[in-house]
Amino acid sequence: MGTPLTPDSRVTPVGIDFGGSGIKCAAVDLASGEPGERARVETPKPSTPEAVAATVVALLARFPEATGRVGVTVPGVVRHGVVHSAANIDRAWLGTDADALFSEATGRQVHVVNDADAAGLAEVEYGAARGRRGLVIVTTLGTGIGSALVHDGVLVPNSELGHLEIDGHDAESRAANSARKAEDLSMKAWAHRLQRYYSTLEMLFSPDLFVVGGGISKRADEFLPLLKLDTEIVPATLRNEAGIVGAALLADRS
Ligand code: BGC
Q1: What average pLDDT does the chain have?
Q2: Does 140 sit in the ligand 1 pocket, CB within 6 Å?
Q3: Is the model's pLDDT at 80 over the cut of 60?
Q4: Cα distances (angstroms) measured from residue 99 to each of 28, 122, 173, 205, 244
Q5: DSSP symbol at 132
Q6: Is the minimum distance from the CB of 55 to ligand 1 under 6 angstroms?
Q7: 13 and which of 3, 138, 194, 248 could share a cystine (Cβ 3.0–4.6 Å)?
Q8: How many angstroms is it from 73 CA to the middle of ligand 1?
Q9: Where are the domains of the chain?
C-alpha cells in the first residue's frame, strides 16, 4: 500500500481561466484556496481551440513545479469535457472535446469546466458563501451572465441562467455588465434591470443566498443597495481569482 495522501503531500493543481480578453493561470493551494503568482496573456484572436491550446501549453510551462491536475474554464456549457455552447467565444469551440484537446496538447490530465461553475464553487468553498448551506446562486456579471447553482456545497453544473428569457430578451443582453457599458447606463438604470433579473431568479429558485461576481462586483456598494429582494445578496470576495481557484479545485476532484 502506498502512503496515504495528505493535503501537504499532494501535488499542486493548476487553474487556468480562459476569458474573452485574457487567459490567466496560477498554481493553487487547495488547503487555503490561495492562488500563487499569476501569469496572464492576451486571449488569441480569433480564440480558436487550437490557438487557445497553444497558449495554455505556453502558460503551463511557466509553472514547472505545479505538477498536479490542470483545470481550465471555458465561457460555455461543458459536458464531460465537450463544449456545447459558444455565446461569447469563437464558434469553432462548439462540439470540441476540450478535455482531449488540452490533455493531448499539454501531456497533462486536463479537466475543462464552465467559467461560472468554477467561480461559483470557489466562492462556496473559500469566499463569500463559505460554510453556507441550502441553495446558493452565484452569478457573474461580465460580458455575459454566468451562473452557478450550489446546494449544500454540491454544484449542479451548466445552469446557464444568464440566458433566461425575461420580457422577451435574453437576460444577459440586458443585465450583463457589458450591456451597462454599451448603453452607458447609470448605476440606477442598470440596477433596475438587475432588479428584474434577480427577482425572476428568486421567484424560480427560492435561493438562500445570491453571490454577485465579475469585475464589477468591486463596485457592489453602488448597485446592490438599490436592489429590493427577500434573499440576501452579497458581493463575491475572490474576485479575479475565483475562476482559477475553482478550476483547480474541480480538476483536483475530477
Ligand atoms: C455563457 C455561459 C458563461 C457566461 C459567463 C454566457 O454567455 O453562455 O456559459 O458562463 O456567459 O461567461
Answers
A1: 94
A2: yes
A3: yes
A4: 20, 21, 29, 31, 16
A5: -
A6: no
A7: 248
A8: 11
A9: 7-117+241-253, 128-237
pLDDT of 5 > 80? The answer is no
pLDDT classification of 87: cutoffs 50, 70, 90: confident
Cβ atoms of 148 and 75 closer than 8 Å: no
Do the domains at 7-117+241-253 and 128-237 have one common CATH topology? Answer: yes
Average pLDDT of 177-191? 98
Model pTM score:
0.94
Give nearest CA residue, ligand 1 atom 4: 146
Report the sign of the C-alpha dihedral through residues 56, 57, 59, 64, in that order.
positive
Shortest-distance Cα residue to atom 5 of ligand 1: 146
Kindly state the cell numbers that stand for 230: 427577500
CATH C-level class of 128-237: alpha beta
CB 74 within 8 A of CB 114: yes
Residue 85 CB–ligand 1 contact under 6 Å: yes
114 touches ligand 1 (CB under 6 Å): yes
Pick from 78, 82, 88 the residue to mutate for probing ligand 1's pocket: most ligand atoms within 8 Å of its CB. 88
Dump pLDDT digits (tens) for 29-57.
999 999 999 999 999 999 999 999 999 99
Q: Measure 158 CA to ligand 1 centroid, in angstroms.
A: 9
In this structure, whether the domain defined by 7-117+241-253 belongs to CATH 3.30.420.40 is answered with: yes
Angle, helices 49-60/98-106, rounded to nearest 10 degrees:
40
From 24, 72, 145, give the residue whose CB has the most ligand 1 atoms within 8 Å, as the site to mutate. 145
Residue-level pLDDT at 239:
81
pLDDT of residue 240: 85
